[in-house]
Amino acid sequence: MTTVLLVRHGLTDANTGGVLAGWTPGVHLAEKGREQAASLAARLADVPVAGIVSSPLERCRETAAAIAAGRDLKVSTDKRLGECHYGDWQGQELKKLVKDPLWKVVQAHPSAVQFPGGESMPAMQQRAVAAIRAHNAKFGEDATWIAVSHGDVIKSILADALGMHLDAFQRIQVDPCSMSVVRYTELRPFVVRMNDKGGPVTDLIPAKKKSRRKASSDAVVGGGAGSS
Fold first, then answer.
1. Are 182 and 4 spatial neighbours (Cβ–Cβ below 8 Å)?
2. Short-list 28, 39, 11, 55, CA closest to 146
3. Which has the higher per-residue pLDDT, 220 or 10?
4. What is the mean pLDDT of residues 30-56?
5. What confidence tens digit (pLDDT) does each residue in 168-206 have?
6. Which end of the chain is more exposed for a tag (fewer CB within 10 A), N or C?
7. Helices (DSSP H) in 44-150: which residue ranges?
8. What is the architecture of the domain spanning 2-222?
9. What's the pTM?
């Protein structure tokens, strides 16, 4: 199985200022965001990863660079992990956008949303999930890797992994510099963590192969129809 650590970028001034940044260039991590990224990097220092793939936007690349520091890894970028293309909404204040009739559709029926001059939310989900699947195949079934992306993008990936319709994805919360974890198997994805912002990560460190085989055997023995 391939394990993916989905990391949202750290806090930016656009986040605190209530602005929908989208693909606006020059949106960097705020001081708090840099602290968040450094803290997450320290938490993950002992977790071996096969690669780190980031959205091409600055705030994600800066978060990814903090996580990659001290590792013999080069961060790669994939535009499919980039923010939703919000079109005419990009750069506008949220307090203005909430008055737009489309806002209610975004909240209640996102699968029907096509942003004016921009991307549809289903298209965003499709290209993001395709990116995850492609990198899973690239890194291999025993790999753990990190994808650094954006709130709506990560929520859409989690909705897919949970078997949820996109219209329910607003029920998922993904805070700045949070980590969500999905394990992809031949049978189905398993969502291990969501919106994780602290605590130990020892369960993400692969066990030795002998121990893994024993754990798998124990799971089969203990996972019968009569188990609770």
1. yes
2. 55
3. 10
4. 97
5. 999 999 999 999 999 999 999 999 999 999 988 998 998
6. C
7. 58-68, 94-97, 101-108, 121-139
8. 3-Layer(aba) Sandwich (3.40)
9. 0.89
